[in-house]
Amino acid sequence: MTLQQLNAELLCCRRCPRLVEWRERMALEKRRAYRDQVYWGKPVPGFGDPHARVFVVGLAPGAHGSNRTGRQFTGDASGDFLYQALYKAGFASQPSSVSCDDGLILSDLYTAPVCRCAPPDNKPTRQEMVNCQPYLESELALIQPKILIALGRIAFDAILSMYSPVFNMQSKTPIVFSHAAVYHLQTSKLSIHPTDFWLICSYHPSRQNTQTGRLTMDMFDQVWMNVRVLVER
Fold first, then answer.
1. CA distance 156 to 219
2. CA-to-CA dists, residue 184 to 53, 146, 181, 205, angstroms
3. What is the pLDDT of residue 185?
4. Percent of the chain having pLDDT more than 90?
5. Domain 3-231: what homologous superfamily?
6. Global pTM exceeds 0.85
7. CB within 10 Å: which end of the chain, N or C, has fewer?
8. How far apart are CA 126 and CA 123, in angstroms?
9. How far apart are CA 211 and CA 77, in angstroms?
10. SS in 3 state form for the chain?
11. Per-residue pLDDT tens over the stretch 170-223
12. How many Å is the maximal CA-CA distance in the chain?
């Protein structure tokens, strides 16, 4: 399967009735500021360089962000924060993303969420995330990244559940989510995923985190500086 074939399958997905109803209702009701726009209203595919060494895992599309524009982290505050940092770190061609045809290009980086449809209150259920996991697993198997970035605890838990990693094979240091934590992981030789990769954690660039100061731009920039150092090794 190619990424194009995977995305074609994804766009037809209706595994989660609650999410299908919500994403389509939001696309019809719209937010007043976007009432003249045509909403995407479908599952949102991954976005970026198909040969990337860096893979960013987020949570889910925003009802009036990616569910409107059809592209990851595009058209909302989280994307504004993320792409500014990626631009400074040399992974994005421009510091903002407002629509799927704004010319943004990601270099050596690919991004996809745990859940592909916009959930009510930005909270997918556990079963909805399980239903969506095969899409993320397939992307990881196709791209074979060397560095994974978990934006938030849910993304972190999803990655661990897929990779079943052992930290440095012999170290007893626990693998726990904390901002800017860096882990060198190895997996079973039978895994279809890379057997040797890095996992870096970050708070999610949600409005809730950035406006309260839990995640500042300096904190976020440091994460991407760490990523850049690992990429250039």
1. 18
2. 15, 10, 10, 23
3. 83
4. 86
5. Uracil-DNA glycosylase-like domain (3.40.470.10)
6. yes
7. C
8. 9
9. 10
10. CCHHHHHHHHHCCCCCHHHHHHHHHHHHHCCHHHCCCCCCCCCCCCEECCCCCEEEEECCCCCCCHHHHCCCCCCCHHHHHHHHHHHHCCCECCCCCCCCCCCCCECCEEEEECCCCCCHHHCCCHHHHHHHHHHHHHHHHHHCCCEEEEECHHHHHHHHHHHCCEECCCCCCCCCCCCCCEEEEECCCCCCCCCEEEEEEECCCCHHHHHCCCCCHHHHHHHHHHHHHHHCC
11. 456 788 999 999 998 877 654 556 567 899 999 999 999 999 999 999 999 999
12. 57
How far does CA 56 lie from the centroid of its chain?
5
Give me the sheet containing 196-202, strands edge to edge. 47-48, 109-113, 54-58, 147-151, 196-202, 182-186, 166-167
Residue tagged 């791209």 (tokens): 143
Amino acid at 65: G
What is the distance between the alpha carbons of residues 36 and 45, in angstroms, rounded to a whole number? 24
Beta-carbon contacts of residue 97 (< 8 Å; ≥ 6 apart): 71, 73, 74, 75, 79, 80, 83, 104
What are the boundaries of each domain within the chain? 3-231
Assigned token pair, 168: 């440095």
Confidence of residue 165 (pLDDT cuts 50, 70, 90): low
